[in-house]
Amino acid sequence: xxxxxxxxxxxxxxGPPDWYVxxxxxxxxxxxxxxxxxxxxxxxxxxxxxxxxxxxxxxxxFPAAAVAAPLLLDIAQQGRPTVRxxxxxxxxxxxxxxxxxxxxxxxxxxxxxxxxxxxxxxQLRARSEFLTGLGRSGKSLLTEAAGHWCFEISECVxxxxxxxxxxxxxxxxxxxxxxxxLQLAGELSVLDAITLEHPPEEGxxxxxxxxxxxxxxxxxxxxxxxxxxxxxxVH
Length: 235
Known about the structure:
The protein is of the alpha+beta class and 235 residues long. The protein folds into 2 domains: 2-146; 150-231. The chain contains 9 helices and 11 strands. It has helices at 2-6, 22-34, 38-49, 64-78, 81-96, 116-126, 128-133, 136-146, 228-231, and strands spanning 54-55, 60-61, 98-99, 105-108, 111-115, 150-159, 162-170, 178-184, 187-198, 206-212, 224-227. The chain has a 6-stranded antiparallel beta barrel.
């Protein structure tokens, strides 16, 4: 666990210079992984929540939170109950806090301009079995993460003046018509109207969206869609 924390160059992760303290991210994660009692867990949480990955007093989240998310989940799985609760509490803050202007996106293996909240939510969904097994606290975190959805287009078909887009959905899109951000090869644009036509069946991520007023040629396979609300978050 400590090797994984030390393998990250926390100083190279961008963040608002008057708020983000890379040493707090590194030291806080090490301390939380080693915490043997509630006091040590609380002290580690204070480092991480006081400029390490979030700044709790001002409700701000930093790009480091997306990098720290899988490490916090590892710590939660391996640590004592107080350590686990501290780690999950920090992940909850990372989802709910807003980033500073200029530091709202992160690079991930699946996208180059992913909103921080969506990147954290992606990591939480990857550990859904563990979180569900925790009962109310884990399920609540997954429910919150579901609102930070991501859809990857695999195929498009023209349909009634719009497009039926087939692909994989992480999270859940509420009923009704929504706006979304479309990302492809570093280019960003806004879709004015999408609806979820066919949600995933249990045990699957396959879904179908209807994109109103756009033709299939405008929605290339490999494109990513994110909720506009997530993309417009700024502290």
